[in-house]
Amino acid sequence: MIYDPAFTENKHRAISAESVSLTLSRKTCSCGAQITARQAKYGGQCDSCRLIVDLLPGDFDLLQHMLGVKQTYKAKWGFRNHYLCNVQDRAAMERLVAAGLARPGERLRAYYHATKDGCRAAGLDRAGIVRAMGAIL
Questions:
Q1: How far is Cα 134 from Cα 137, in angstroms, rounded to an integer?
Q2: Whole-model pTM above 0.70?
Q3: Residues 6+ apart with CB under 8 A from 15
Q4: Domain chopping of the chain, boundaries
């Protein structure tokens, strides 16, 4: 057989193109966020979706309200980290505590505060988490 460098070069390019397309494909969560390879391997969900899987839709809204997450003042997200719970929201707050996203207050048991995982799930960035954790009464 005669050695043909062009054939070998083309074969090498084809193999490397296949491997690049397999390893560099973008992975996305069901919510549309991009996820890492580790997240894709263990469930295929971003951290926010993984943390709120056992919650009802209204529970997540309470978490966002607790942290002051509104689209109108995004630069100040996390300026507060407390929620005075009423009787109707007690079950929702207990679900947040069970999920590890909130904890009851130390002074008054009717107050609830978000944890770092709760801040991440609500969509706060690093500066917002620092603000929120410093805002605990």
A1: 8
A2: no
A3: none
A4: 50-134
Q: How far is C-alpha 73 from the chain's CA centre?
A: 20
User: How far, in Å, CA of 70 to CA of 78, rounded?
Assistant: 10
pLDDT at 21 over 80: no
The neighbouring-strand residues paired with 83 are 112
What pLDDT does residue 113 have?
92
Tokens for 43?
């469930």
Angle between helices 90-99 and 57-67 (to 10 degrees): 80
Q: In a 10 Å sphere around its CB, with 0-12 CB exposed, 13-18 middle and 19+ buried, how is residue 119 labelled?
A: buried
Q: For residue 37, what are the CA distances in angstroms to 33, 41, 47, 123?
A: 13, 6, 13, 21
CB 102 within 8 A of CB 84: no
Residue tagged 């193999």 (tokens) = 15
